[in-house]
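Usage example:
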Amino acid sequence: MIIKTGKNTLTPNIKSSEITPESVFINRRQLLRAAGLAGVSGIAPMAAAAEDIPSRYKRLKDIKPSALSTDEAATSFEDLTGYNNFYEFGTGKTDPAGYSGAFKPLPWSVTIDGEADVTGTFTLEDLLAPHALEERIYRLRCVEAWSMVVPWVGIPLADILKRFKPTSKAKYVAFETVVRPSEMPGQKRSILPWPYREGLRIDEAMNPLTILANGVYGVQLPNQNGAPLRLVVPWKYGFKSIKSIVRITFTEKEPYTTWNDLAPGEYGFYANVNPEVDHPRWSQARERPIGAGFFASKVPTRMFNGYADQVAGMYKGMDLTRYF
Amino acid sequence: MSFPSSRQVRLLIKPVWFIACLLPFVWLLLNAFEIAGPDLGADPIEAIQDRMGIWGLRLLLLTLALTPLRLLTGKAWFMQLRRMTGLYALFYISLHFANYLLLDQGLSWQFIIEDVVERPFITIGFIAFCALIPLGITSTYGWRRRLGRKWQSLHRLVYPIAILGCWHFWWQVKQDVTEPLVYSSILFVLLGYRLANNYKKARAR
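Running the assembly step on the lines above writes:
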């Protein structure tokens, strides 16, 4: 975490200016102000919580703030890393935290193929190196009607994809999760047809909100959160944000996506957060914020998870009850 | 004298059983107030919902297992635990339902009614709960005497209730049905045993 104030330094007696280049520090303030998020509140969640993160997580350096971040308070690191859906490690919410210890996210490489001029297999470092890391504090809405606020660290997906020069035939982007049953105990059973696969329309993939994340709370992604590289698409239900990505394919046709294939009546290809289109078995009108305790009432779910201004245009004229 | 004597059943087995059935509730309270054991995690409301529901189903199946146990072992005292076990099942299912109404939905009736009417897995759970209530009320000796032969017919409702309970569990699972499959299989065996037994009795007549 690069933003330090006198109160929140990890190491006492070091001035914030010694840790954080002043230009970056000021830049963040300016961006927040530009986004109408001025004041300490926009900075507080991450800076405050950085102290609680165990030292075994490697800190990421030189993270830029983003005007696309929400100023809502982030869910605690403990809840973010203790309550996950990542069936590769088991179907229980605490399974990913409990059974991901044997997973080795590094070294890592990602294969890029399909409708693009530049294809091949690239190391994680090669993939990320040309780009600056950004902190994106996003709302996360699970299809199961719970939600979190997550301070991701990552890179706009568009910036990465453009380097591979997708051709005019590239209408969609498909993603694939690693298959390692020896390290991922959930994959020893055929709960889902492994590998887990997801996909986006190319304009969704190129939307400025869409990122590939390699960190959270200023540290490298913990295994249970999709280490070392995952997708984050904040206006879609969480299952679209595929974890531990090993393959990205540009395709001409709508790609296979796991949940949509398993239960097409329950999970659409788009899976945009939409309070007006209920899941057949439960309401999507409200959500429970995780970490709010016993008496936290549900809060209304917002159209496109509150990102309608940035994304609604992509779906103009589409019947969202049909393309859910 | 055979073990256990009726005195031992009354003074030892039943009190022990009473406490044993209460333990999941006590454990939940200890966890919830962070007195002992792990806390309820990031989504405590869901944790209460799942735990109370599963204990309700377990005790319901256990209630159904007591008659076969008596028939298989010849120990009549198993029957003396049946009412308490069944009432405990109702107790846990009531907590499951109360948690849904109060903590999960915050008594938002508009959403609750929509759920019960429009979501089949909630509908069948709700029907099962409603059907269990008269069984709880009429579980006393007084009601049993008053209803006579009708009591038996009324309490046969427990079979469809258990089927609805397993179905309710099965239907709310997203993908991995292993656990509901286990409970449904147990129910299947218990019902199968009962049917086979009735068939044998009918033939013997």
